[in-house]
């Protein structure tokens, strides 16, 4: 959480004014990006001879403006007590901004529980891929869709078998979260599928009833993973990304043309294998305080199959009534890659990234130079329009049964927020055009805060009275409040090795 303090003040027009002093610019992560993003971009472009993709540069820019009042804000006023509140704009990016990531996690989890996942048992199926396929999926995100189709077909078939139904007699449903990172903010694309643990079957009147499935056995799980691997390999070979020659399977040479391929792939490959992409230590492993690669926590546990670098884990099941646990699970799988607390600087000026849970060898932190840390941040940024949540079967947006099985959720308090709730989740596309802020975007942003309870009196409703976007007005108000009217300065690009 960012430091927050509230101070009553008077606005220039004399109204009492409240503002929340979020201070993103005081976090270590902010300072690192502020000082080193420009060097990182310059250095990456110099060493690859290609331009870093626009969406990555935009992510760094947007992060540096996130929560900073000097970049503009909304003025809200309480209908009851008349107090004003200033609300800085947030970047709403999906790569590494911890505060936007945490907000998105809460909104997405609440949305899934209230409006998407029916009141039936749910099993989590986690599929991890071997490292070469992680690199492939990072470089060619369009492959995620066919991969998911393969996985869903295999799992649905399994659930239909368990219920003793033919393919056209029952309907499965699932939500998949494509998680792009592991516990060390390393790029580790893996799939978390929340699968309804059974199938729907319609009676003579077309009313869907749910048939629960039992837990798979370890042998069944192994067989499922074998089937998934065989079908994935076949699909990837058919698409020309894998080449089978003399009984061996190889990754086909990617069409390495294009600026993006040259800058992005080394970054992604490095982030996947814990190596440093560019700079004096290029190719070396990132230092850890204990120095070893992590093993996945859940290896060698029941209901976890491991074959040829693939793994499938299915031990977590949530009962139909346990909506609280379901929400915790949804939060866990939509959690952001980083939190402010996990990023620190040591006395030598190196970045210490605290692991969420220590590795088995006792490693608690990864240590890297600021430039190396920037590489890791860049690799975490998803491409624009890459949807990280997918809905399958009866939960697919166009599924006939969808409206009959999804929960109706709590009553929304006002019609305006109805559109905002689902649209706010991960599923939306990221708006472009960093310097023009449209009203639609402003309104979306505003629903990120509790408009129904004034922070001062606790009962009044907040209304937007103005969006302050013009430089001179921003300066006037912030100066009046004794706040810094200037955005935090940005570090200039420096030579590598100076970090
Ligand atoms: Zn943000
Ligand atoms: Zn009030």
Structural class: alpha+beta
The total tally of domains equals 2
**Hetero groups bound?**
zinc ion
Principal-axis shape equals globular
The overall pLDDT average reads 79
Number of strands: 19
What portion of residues belong to β-strands? 15-25%
Low-confidence stretches: 1-10, 288-299, 411-442
Largest sheet: 6 strands, antiparallel
Cα radius of gyration in angstroms:
24 Å
Oligomer: single chain
* Number of helical elements: 13
Terminal Cα separation, in Å? 28 Å
- Measured as a percent range, the helix fraction is 25-40%
Strand order of the largest sheet: 13-14-5-7-6-18
Topology:
Elements: E1 9-10, E2 16-19, H1 28-48, H2 54-65, E3 73-78, E4 84-88, H3 98-116, E5 122-128, H4 131-139, H5 144-163, E6 173-181, E7 187-196, E8 198-202, E9 208-212, H6 218-238, E10 242-245, E11 248-251, H7 259-273, E12 287-288, E13 304-307, E14 310-318, H8 323-333, E15 343-345, E16 351-354, E17 365-368, H9 370-380, E18 389-393, H10 402-405, H11 415-424, H12 439-446, E19 462-468, H13 471-480
Parallel strand pairs: 2-4
Antiparallel strand pairs: 1-2, 3-4, 3-19, 5-7, 5-14, 6-7, 6-18, 8-9, 10-11, 12-17, 13-14, 15-16, 16-17
Helix pairs in contact: 1-2, 1-9, 3-8, 4-7, 5-6, 7-9
The protein binds zinc ion (2 copies).
One zinc ion binds next to loops.
